[in-house]
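Sequence and structure are no longer studied apart. To make this concrete, we show below a single chain and its fold as tokens.
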Amino acid sequence: MPETEKGLVQIYTGEGKGKTTAALGLALRAVGQDKRVGFIQFLKNEKCGEHFFTDRFQIFKIVQMTSEDCFKASPEKLAEEARKTLTFAEEAMLSGKYDLLILDEIFIAVQKKAINVKQVLKLLDKKPENLELVLTGRYAPQEIIQRADLVTEMRLIKHPMARGITARRGIEY
């Protein structure tokens, strides 16, 4: 397989805003080139602007398998749901249905100890050669960064929340 056809592993991490947004931009670019996109969110359970958009235009589905707010759920509940999401992600990855698969906030699941680094590395070991795999979230572990082909760190320089401006509809959610 020519290098230009091989799927790579990309990471969007860091304290700054824009990791999910960058992954969504890549997904739109892929759809524009007739690529099949899978988008799976770890530990998120509320619909926001991107869900409404993808539902309205049926360009791809954003899957959430978490039933409770990750800041309120018990560690046991988070671990159970993160494991189910990881299993679902592996099945999606191996299904042959996608050219691009995005695992949004997978690193938060690792940081919260709902899944572990070894489980993510095992997933990377199984990645089909032609699949582009994107992992997002703060706190990307060094072992996974080393395995990636592209790593972008979003750095927080200034944020309106520091001035008390809360999340705005259509901008942050």
User: Anything to note?
Assistant: The CA atoms of residues 157 and 163 lie 13 Å apart.
